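TASK: fixed-backbone design
INPUT:
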C-alpha cells in the first residue's frame, strides 16, 4: 500500500473524510518524513488534522503545545469522539489534580496515547520534562504559533521558552501552525524555534465567504447591535469586547432584549466558562459575548456572524477572530464597530510600558485604524497586510466594495508624498509625513527643522484623512512599504522611486453620498410628532375625558410628548407603558389601565404590527443622582444647597426634579417654596396652572408677566402642582 493510500484509508477510518483539503496531505507527508514544517493556514482550513492524523500513524506520542485550557479540552474531546479508546488523547494542565495527571501518564506509558496536549507552562515543569524524557516522542506541534512573536496579536512570553524545553526532552520534528502571521511574525516564529530550514506551507488568507464591514460606533451602539443580531434570525454569533466589564454588561443587555447570550472571559471561574462554552456549542445560547480568550480552536463550523464591539488591538487579532465565522464555507458576516476614541484609549493603556513595547503596540494599532478608516476594498487591505496580493479591485463582499465610488485624480499628491519620504531619507513614519504636507508645526517637525522643507504645507488644503488614504493606497499599489524593524518608517520601493522620476496616473476612490435617508430613531425617540395621527387623536380624547372626571388639566395626566410616543410604539402592557417618556411607575399605575386597553383594542382592530419587537431595552441601573435628590428632599435639604453639593446649576437641579415628578414620583418641595416664594405669588401661579391649557413655561411667563414673576419660582410651583394633582 502506498503512503497516499495509507493516508486516505486512515483519513476515512478515523475522521470520515474521503479526501484532503488544500495542502493537508503534503504537510502530513513532510512531517512523517521527519522534516520541520511551518503551516500558515486560515481558520477553517483544517490545521488540526495536519498533526492529528500523523500522530495516529507514527510511533510514539505527539506533544501538542497549546495556549488555552478550553482549546485543549475541545480538541481532546473531538479526538476521543473519533476513537473507541478514550486514552487516545489527553491533556496535562493546571485544571487536573495530581491523581488525574498520574492516570494520564499511565496511559502514555501503556502506549494508549497518541496525542498529548500541554500548555507551555506545564511543559516547563521539571517533573513533566523528566517524565517525557523517558517517552518516545513522534513530533512536537506548536499550535497558535503566533503567540511566540512579540509582533503577533496574542504574544505569550512562555512560548519563547519552548525550544530550550524541547532540547531538554529530546529532539523530534517540529510542526508550527498558525492562522495569522505577517512575514515578520513568521520569521520570528521560525527563528525562535530554530527551524529556519523548515518547509513552509502557506495557504491563501482569502476567505471569500466572509463579508467585512466597519460601522461607526455611536452612543447608540447597543441599539445598533441588538437590531443587527435580531436581523440574523437566531443564527449563532460571537461578539468580541476588550474588557471583562464590557462583556458582562453587554451580555446582560442582550439578555434583557430576549437574545440568548452568555459571557465568557478569563476572570470567570473555569466551571462557568466551560459551561457557557458548551451551551454555545450545543446551541442553547445564540450568542457568546467574549474577550479574545474565546474561540481559539473552537470547532463550531456554523458561526454566522462575528461582531467586534470594540476595535481590536491588531489586524492579526481581527483576522483570526473574524475567521471563526463561516468555517463550513457558508455565510459569515464580520461587523466591526469603530470610533477613533477607542484607538486613543488603547494608546493610553500603553503608557508606562517599555518603549519598544509601546512602539510595537502603536504600529499595530495604526494598521488597525488604517483598515477601519479605509475606503478601498477591505479584503485587499487584509491580504496585503499578510503579504498576499489580491488582484481584484472589487471583491463584492465588503462594505466598501458595495458602496458607490468615483475615482479622483491624486497623481500630484502622491508625487509630493513620495518626494517628502525621499527628502527625509526614508527615516520617518506616516504621521510625520502627513504633518509636513499639512504644514503642521508639531514638536517633531520643528525639532528636525522640517518646516523648512520645500514640501512643507504643500497640501495644507487637503483633508488629513485623505492624505492617510492616499498613503494606504500607495502601500497597496506597491509604491511604499513600512519597515517593521524601525517600527514603521516609510520606505520607497523601486516602483516608488520610478514614480518620482516618471509619474503615472494615480487615482483614489471617494464615496458618492446618496440622498440622506431617514434614520431609525427607535421607539421613544419621537417626541414631537406621532407616527399614528388617528391614535394620537383618540388618546387625546381619552385624556380630556379623564381630566374632566378627575378635575385636573389634561397635561397633568400625560403630556403631549408621551401621547405621541404611545401613538408610535403602541404599548399594550403597564410595563411597556412605563418605558414611554414622561411615564413612570406611578403614572402608569394611576392612569395607565384605560390607555393600554384603548391601545390594545386599536391594535387588534386595525391589525397593526407593533414596533415593540424593535425596541432595545437597557439593563436597569439605579441613578445615584436621582436617588440622592429624592432622599435629600425627604430630609428637607434646601434645593440651592443640594445643587451646589451635586455640582449642578439650579436650572439643572430643577430639570432633574421635573423629570422625577413627571414620571409619577411624588415629591414634597413645599418646605423650600415657603422659603423662596411669596405665598400670594405661589397662589397666583398655582391657580394659573389649574386653568391653563398646557404647562409650557414660556407661555406661563408671558401670561403671568415676566417682570412680575421669577422663572425659577414659576417652575418650583409647577413641580408642586404636578406632584399634588398628577401623582
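OUTPUT:
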Amino acid at each position: 500500500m502506498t503512503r497516499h493510500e495509507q493516508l486516505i484509508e486512515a483519513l476515512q477510518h478515523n475522521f470520515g473524510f474521503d479526501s484532503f483539503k488544500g495542502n493537508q496531505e503534503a504537510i502530513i507527508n513532510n512531517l512523517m518524513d521527519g522534516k520541520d514544517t511551518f503551516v500558515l493556514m486560515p481558520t477553517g482550513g483544517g490545521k488540526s488534522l495536519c498533526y492529528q492524523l500523523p500522530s495516529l500513524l507514527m510511533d510514539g506520542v505527539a506533544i501538542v503545545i497549546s495556549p488555552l485550557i478550553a482549546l485543549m479540552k475541545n480538541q481532546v474531546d473531538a479526538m476521543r469522539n473519533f476513537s473507541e479508546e478514550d486514552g487516545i488523547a489527553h491533556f496535562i494542565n493546571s485544571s487536573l489534580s495530581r491523581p488525574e495527571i498520574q492516570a494520564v501518564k499511565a496511559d502514555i506509558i501503556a502506549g494508549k496515547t497518541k496525542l498529548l496536549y500541554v500548555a507551555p507552562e506545564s511543559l516547563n515543569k521539571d517533573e513533566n520534562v523528566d517524565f517525557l524524557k523517558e517517552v518516545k516522542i513522534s513530533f512536537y506541534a506548536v499550535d497558535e504559533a503566533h503567540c511566540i512573536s512579540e509582533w503577533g496579536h496574542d504574544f505569550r512570553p512562555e512560548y519563547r521558552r519552548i525550544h530550550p524545553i524541547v532540547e531538554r526532552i529530546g529532539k523530534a520534528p517540529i510542526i508550527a501552525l498558525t492562522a495569522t502571521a505577517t512575514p515578520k511574525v513568521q520569521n520570528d516564529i521560525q527563528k525562535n524555534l530554530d527551524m529556519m530550514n523548515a518547509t513552509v506551507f502557506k495557504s491563501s488568507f482569502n476567505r471569500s465567504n466572509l463579508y467585512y464591514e466597519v460601522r461607526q460606533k455611536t452612543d447608540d451602539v447597543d441599539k445598533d447591535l441588538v437590531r443587527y443580531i435580531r436581523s440574523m434570525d437566531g443564527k449563532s454569533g460571537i461578539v468580541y469586547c476588550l474588557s471583562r466589564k464590557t462583556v458582562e454588561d453587554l451580555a446582560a443587555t442582550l439578555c434583557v432584549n430576549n437574545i440568548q447570550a452568555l459571557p465568557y472571559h478569563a476572570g470567570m471561574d473555569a466551571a462557568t466558562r466551560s459551561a457557557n462554552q458548551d451551551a454555545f456549542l450545543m446551541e442553547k445560547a445564540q450568542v457568546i459575548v467574549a474577550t479574545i480568550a474565546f474561540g481559539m480552536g473552537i470547532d463550531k463550523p456554523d458561526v454566522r456572524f462575528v461582531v467586534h464591539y470594540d476595535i481590536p488591538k491588531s489586524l492579526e487579532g481581527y483576522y483570526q477572530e473574524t475567521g471563526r465565522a463561516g468555517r463550513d464555507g457558508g455565510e459569515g458576516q464580520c461587523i466591526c464597530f469603530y470610533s477613533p476614541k477607542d484607538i486613543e484609549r488603547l494608546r493610553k493603556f500603553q503608557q508606562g510600558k517599555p518603549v519598544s513595547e509601546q512602539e510595537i503596540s502603536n504600529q499595530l494599532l495604526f494598521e488597525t485604524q488604517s483598515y477601519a478608516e479605509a475606503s478601498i476594498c477591505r479584503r485587499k487591505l487584509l491580504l496585503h497586510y499578510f503579504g498576499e496580493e489580491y488582484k481584484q479591485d472589487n471583491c463584492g463582499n465588503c462594505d466598501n466594495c458595495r458602496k458607490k465610488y468615483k475615482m479622483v485624480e491624486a497623481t500630484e499628491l502622491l508625487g509630493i508624498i513620495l518626494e517628502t519620504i525621499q527628502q527625509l531619507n526614508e527615516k520617518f513614519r506616516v504621521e510625520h509625513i502627513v504633518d509636513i504636507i499639512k504644514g503642521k508645526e508639531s514638536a517633531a517637525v520643528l525639532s528636525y527643522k522640517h518646516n523648512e522643507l520645500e514640501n512643507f504645507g504643500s497640501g495644507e488644503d487637503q483633508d488629513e484623512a485623505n492624505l492617510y488614504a492616499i498613503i494606504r493606497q500607495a502601500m497597496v499599489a506597491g509604491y511604499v512599504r513600512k519597515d517593521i524593524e524601525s517600527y514603521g518608517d516609510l520606505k520607497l520601493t523601486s516602483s516608488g522611486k520610478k514614480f518620482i522620476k516618471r509619474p503615472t496616473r494615480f487615482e483614489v476612490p471617494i464615496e458618492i453620498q446618496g440622498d440622506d435617508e431617514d434614520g431609525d430613531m427607535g421607539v421613544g425617540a419621537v417626541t414631537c410628532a406621532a407616527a399614528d395621527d388617528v391614535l394620537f387623536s383618540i388618546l387625546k380624547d381619552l385624556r380630556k375625558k379623564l381630566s374632566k372626571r378627575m378635575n385636573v388639566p389634561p397635561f397633568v395626566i400625560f403630556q403631549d410628548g408621551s401621547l405621541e410616543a404611545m401613538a408610535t410604539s403602541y404599548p399594550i402592557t403597564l410595563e411597556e407603558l412605563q418605558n414611554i417618556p414622561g411615564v413612570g411607575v406611578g403614572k402608569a399605575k394611576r392612569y395607565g389601565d384605560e390607555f393600554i386597553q384603548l391601545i390594545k383594542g386599536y391594535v387588534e382592530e386595525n391589525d397593526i404590527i407593533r414596533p415593540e419587537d424593535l425596541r432595545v431595552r437597557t439593563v436597569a441601573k439605579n441613578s445615584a443622582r436621582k436617588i440622592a435628590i429624592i432622599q435629600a428632599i425627604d430630609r428637607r435639604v434646601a434645593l440651592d444647597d443640594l445643587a451646589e453639593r451635586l455640582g449642578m446649576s439650579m436650572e439643572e437641579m430643577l430639570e432633574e426634579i421635573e423629570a422625577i415628578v413627571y414620571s409619577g414620583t411624588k415629591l414634597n418641595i413645599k418646605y423650600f417654596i415657603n422659603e423662596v416664594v411669596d405665598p400670594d405669588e405661589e397662589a397666583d401661579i398655582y391657580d394659573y396652572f389649574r386653568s391653563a391649557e398646557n404647562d409650557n413655561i414660556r407661555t406661563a411667563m408671558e401670561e403671568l408677566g415676566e417682570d412680575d414673576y421669577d422663572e425659577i419660582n414659576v417652575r418650583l410651583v409647577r413641580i408642586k402642582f404636578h406632584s399634588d394633582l398628577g401623582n
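COMMENT: The CA atoms of residues 181 and 519 lie 40 Å apart.
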